[in-house]
UniProtKB/TrEMBL annotation:
GO terms for molecular function: ATP binding; cysteine-tRNA ligase activity; zinc ion binding. SUPFAM superfamilies: Anticodon-binding domain of a subclass of class I aminoacyl-tRNA synthetases, Nucleotidylyl transferase. One of its GO terms (cellular component) is cytosol. This is Cysteine--tRNA ligase. ATP binds at K287. Binds 1 zinc ion per subunit. It is an enzyme of class 6 (ligase). Keywords: Aminoacyl-tRNA synthetase, ATP-binding, Cytoplasm, Ligase, Metal-binding, Nucleotide-binding, Protein biosynthesis, Zinc.
Length: 496
């Protein structure tokens, strides 16, 4: 394991703290996954990108990591007031499909979007519907411990009772008295003891599709309970890192803390991490403003605000240029600049991967050696400092200049020495590809490339350059394409 002092910004303590894995001997990391009733949006992508890079970096440092990212496929009501219809059930009814068809459709879309962005799969990807038993058992424990109560076939968490012995709101800095004064009277609240109480289990109305038997009658779990149960099952009662978008800090993560403490008697998480919001040309991204676009629209350039299409790796590079806790603003100028920066890094990556140390009589260059060592340390220091990918990129581009000097011959490998040379190349390749997850986007336009070669073939045939003709035929055949001289002209076909 590389010596390091990785620090993360702990939302609970408001400080950067040195990270150390707890017992058991792996890093336990839980991230709230998507609710699968609609297409994945860019805010989701940014959140999952942050934790993809953190997952990659921890493994790069030598940690064993158990990364859990859940799928919410039940229990997400239309209102934070625990009223309304389950959104998945509503979608299923509108589209005349089974709820699990909706779940599978949007889960597949979610996985495909993340695949295109080159995300690593998590260690475990549990679903809410696959853990109904655990949720019922936890609700029973909360009732037994005096922090929950049954009312009309539903079960609610008693926030005021919990707040007598614990601090509800400590993650988000909310105060219960202020929350009570801000709460509106809403229909359907009569069965709660107070309006801040949230549902652990909801009684299913006759028309509700997704329902399960329970000690309190047929119903379905509330939104918050699933994450408490799944994180506990796969990571234990206390684990290292929990995260998600900033919008989940309250009420979702606040409720998770209360549930875990109420059920198990201890805080569930050491470090809370939250990603910030996205804006477009300085305005908050929203459907109502017409400035919200999906990943597929970015890739196709199919939106009035987009001047052109942007590739997945361009967008990945762009998102990582800002620190995860800062606001990220989408604009065409920023995306175009990101595409140029991404291509510069990829050109360097192609070069660096082919480099091998070659001894020569070149004199050692102490200044260059010291520069490499400082830049390598700076890259790691940036990532150790609360995953500061923006600063890491700045140092990577400085390393890229040295890679290009080696490539052009203005700096000899021997001038660095074998150890420093390997440190330069290994760090540049490892951080760019393995940690930041940037990969080459090779063209898939086979027709255009083959036609370009056939133009050269036609020119060679016209000039009777038979050696050139044979060479082009052989190169095309090597990749499974045959050239055919037809009466109507020169054509190509896949080699059979």
């Amino acid at each position: 394991m590389r010596n390091h002092n990785l620090r993360v910004y702990n939302t609970l303590s408001r400080t950067k703290e040195a990270f150390a894995p707890l017992d058991p001997p792996y890093v336990g990391m839980y991230v709230c996954g998507p609710t699968v009733y609609s297409n994945v949006h860019l805010g989701n992508v940014r959140t999952f990108l942050t934790f993809d890079v953190l997952y990659r970096y921890l493994r790069y440092l030598g940690y064993k990591v158990r990364y859990v990212r859940n799928i919410t496929d039940v229990g997400h009501l239309e209102s934070d007031a625990d009223e309304g219809e389950d959104k998945i059930a509503k979608k299923a009814r509108l589209e005349r499909l089974e709820p699990m068809e909706i779940v599978q459709q949007y889960t597949n879309d979610f996985h495909e979007v993340l695949r295109r962005f080159n995300f690593l799969p998590p260690s475990v990807e549990p679903s809410a519907t696959g853990h109904i038993v655990e949720q019922i058992e936890t609700v029973k424990t909360l009732i037994e411990n005096g922090f929950a109560y049954e009312s009309g076939g539903s079960v609610y968490f008693d926030v005021l009772k919990y707040n007598q012995s614990h601090a509800y709101g400590k993650l988000s800095g909310r105060v219960v008295a202020d929350l009570l004064s801000e709460t509106r009277d809403l229909d359907g609240q009569a069965e709660k003891r107070n309006p801040l109480d949230f549902a652990l289990w909801k009684k299913a109305a006759p028309e509700h599709i997704m329902r399960w038997p329970s000690p309190w009658g047929a119903g379905f779990p509330g939104w918050h309970i699933e994450c408490t149960c799944m994180s506990t099952k796969y990571l234990g009662k206390h684990f290292d890192i929990h995260g998600g978008g900033m919008d989940l800090k309250f009420p979702h993560h606040e409720c998770e803390i209360a549930q875990a403490v109420g059920a198990h008697g201890e805080d569930p998480v050491t470090y809370w991490m939250h990603t910030n919001m996205l804006t477009v040309n300085g305005e908050k991204m929203s459907k109502s403003k017409g400035n919200s676009f999906l990943p597929a629209q970015l890739f196709a350039g199919d939106h009035p605000l987009l001047l052109q299409a942007y590739s997945p790796m361009t967008v990945r590079f762009f998102m990582l240029q800002a620190h995860y806790r800062s606001t990220l603003d989408f604009s065409n100028d920023a995306l175009i600049a990101a595409r140029k920066g991404y291509k510069r890094l990829m050109n360097g990556l192609v070069i660096a991967r082919k480099m091998q140390y070659a001894p020569s009589d070149a004199a050692p260059d102490a200044k260059a050696q010291e520069e490499v060592k400082k830049l390598v340390e700076a890259v790691h220091a940036a990532l150790d400092d609360d995953l500061n990918t923006a600063m890491a990129f700045a140092h990577l581009f400085s390393l890229l200049k040295l890679v290009n000097k080696l490539h052009t011959g203005s700096l000899a490998p021997a001038a660095l020495g074998e150890e420093t040379f390997n440190q330069l190349v290994g760090t540049f390749v490892g951080i760019t590809g393995d940690v930041l997850g940037l990969v080459e986007e090779k063209t898939e336009d086979v027709d255009h490339l083959v036609e370009a070669l056939l133009d050269l073939y036609r020119e060679a045939k016209l000039n009777k350059a038979y050696d050139k003709i044979d060479q082009i035929r052989a190169r095309l055949k090597a990749v499974g394409i045959s050239v055919k001289d037809m009466k109507t002209g020169i054509e190509w076909a896949y080699e059979e």
